[in-house]
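step 3/5: co-fold with S-adenosylmethionine
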Amino acid sequence: MPLAPARPAKRQRRLAPEPAAPAVKGNRSSASASKSKSRLRLLWLAVPAVAGLAFYLSTGRGLGWAPEYTPSRRDPFVVADLPGRGKGLVAVRDIMQGELVIQESPLFTVPQSISESPVTLISRLLDGVSPEGRAAFLNLSYVHLPEGMDLENNPGEVALAIFQTNAVAAGDDRAGIFPRMARLNHGCSSAFNLVYTWRDREQQLFVHALRNISKGQELLTTYTDTKRTRNERREFLSQQYGFTCACAVCSLDAAASKLSDERLTAIARYYEHLRSWGRGAISGVEAIDTINKIWKLEDEEGYWSERGRLAADGAWIAASHSDASAARLWGRLAVEWYTYELGADSDLVLATQKTVDRPEKHRAWGSRHQPLAVGVPLTNGA
Ligand SMILES: C[S@@+](CC[C@H](N)C(=O)[O-])C[C@H]1O[C@@H](n2cnc3c(N)ncnc32)[C@H](O)[C@@H]1O
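step 4/5: write tokens
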């Protein structure tokens, strides 16, 4: 039976048969959509729901008695106490766009489908973890523990709350705990500076710098699809993670925030429009024009995530209309951004490079029978 998904990582996925199909980064709200699918999923969802009937803890808190997971000497960050945000990671030197910041194996992973109680499952898996790993897990923060429960009397429920606050996707159908990565706090649109991805080949989570980060800056990832308004984002984050987001974007003054909301809403709308190319509702030229509009709006917003995927969609559309030169240019752009997001040696970079070298070998090549000059990237990166 399916289990409510944790925060999905940016997955290394095959190019979609339809542009901009399901988001690479999602959120736990996606669980609600398929809520009714199984009793077990409901059981997972029931934990925060029960907590909701009592009181959500307003801030994350750790158990405080276990040692911190020791960062390696080569890490470009330290774990720091940050006012109002619990612990977080802060850069101890400048970090370059595309740099690998964390590469981490999971303490344990759980499948999305389980046949036993989540509390029993997490407790059993924890028993199999080393004492250091267990201590690191128990030191992580958590929210949504029903009132009146505590570690002494309800260790299983506390472990489950820790899991639910910190788990991220480890592949398509598992979620895992990564104690170092778990210290990353959240930022919206232009505020987050790291993206993470699960790599099947290495069976590890890779976290890369999406933009240049200066020494002293906090490292931030994003917990949700931030292409929505400030109020919508805040509501989701408050419900799921128990905090009111005050990142740089959420802290903009009213006028600037309104502009940001408008841009993000328009970006989401254009993504929807782009998707309709897959069912033949818009032409290849209009689809490419839409990608260029998204790119421009994202430049204005400072929203840089998912650009590898967006450019790869451009290559897909160009290839499907047998437009080799556009496919090559979009492919180049995809390689550039996948390299930042996923690493130069990732499967997607290697696969996309093949489109640059031999566009006519793309699996979508000629699938839209009508050859068409669809349009090229209108960005400086091209
Ligand atoms: C995965 S943990 C992140 C690390 C956590 N701060 C800690 O001390 O271990 C998620 C929790 O961190 C806190 N958090 C994350 N991002 C935040 C933000 N932008 N503002 C305030 N609290 C945040 C929330 O309590 C959230 O439930």
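step 5/5: annotate
The chain has two domains: 29-241, 254-361.
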